[in-house]
Amino acid sequence: MRGKYTKKTFALEIFAILLALVFLVPFYFVIVNSLKSFPEILVDAAALPSKLLFSNYREVWDILNFPRVFVNSIVITVFSNIGIVIISSMAAWKMVRSPGNFSKILFVFFVSAMVIPFQTVMIPLVKLGGLLGIMNSIPGIIVMYFGFGVPLSLFLYHGFVKSVPIEIEEAAKIDGCSQFRVFWKIVFPLLKPITVTVIILNTLWIWNDYLLPLLVLQDASLRTIPLATSSFFAQYTKQWDMGLAALVMGITPIIIFFLFLQKHIIKGIASGSIK
Questions:
Q1: Which of 29, 95, 97, 168 is the most buried (most CB within 10 A)?
Q2: Which residue did the predictor score with more confidence, 27 or 272?
Q3: CATH number for the domain including 215?
Q4: How far is residue 70 from each of residues 33, 88, 146, 228, measured CA to CA in Å?
Q5: Does residue 90 register a pLDDT over 90?
Q6: What is the widest separation between alpha-carbon atoms in the chain?
Q7: Is residue 61 part of a domain?
Q8: What is the structure's pLDDT at 1?
Q9: Mean pLDDT value of segment 232-246
């Protein structure tokens, strides 16, 4: 009978619950130990805190100057996303609507860039950034995120644009719309599902990125949340109580953001893979 609850369904649900618990274990350790004193963490990291030390969060707020690093992370993430969305969506649309060898070769170059490890371009990137004078600046790192974020985003947009009927654009052109207006008034609103997906994926990446900000942002006033948090985990000293509290403060905004928009991920990726 269709919809019948079977033993197999029950077993799958139990397996899914157990798997979810396994993935939640790290969150348990981070949250629980962020409310303990350092000696208590060393005694038993798995136990519940004997006393909730919310003072850890107050100290981290002051030590890291958390409002400053939070604003830095927000500015870098937001403006990087804006640039990546504009560049990749327009480029993908132009490539799809201008079929030819040049568009195909250009698309292959963008896709190939996705498989190049960041570690292979670190040193040339730092040298080039120094020559251009964009090192140790927030605008500079935003431009660099454009370069690293566009290939994957363009690939996603490229597949989605193919599902947009070209007849709509042709009708708009007949009515006198320029190419600019056709894209922003007709095409871009139809790209909303994949745009949300691109924003989510790039936000998770940029917000949590550590290596690129470490290479580019030397000034303490420009640090992002991951960079600031790393100060609690030095080579010879590890302040687990402060560091874990900082981790909780850093991941909370991005978890809220992800939970709020997660339903768009599967929808956008599935839509982009139609053709």
A1: 95
A2: 27
A3: 1.10.3720.10
A4: 22, 27, 21, 10
A5: yes
A6: 74
A7: no
A8: 46
A9: 81
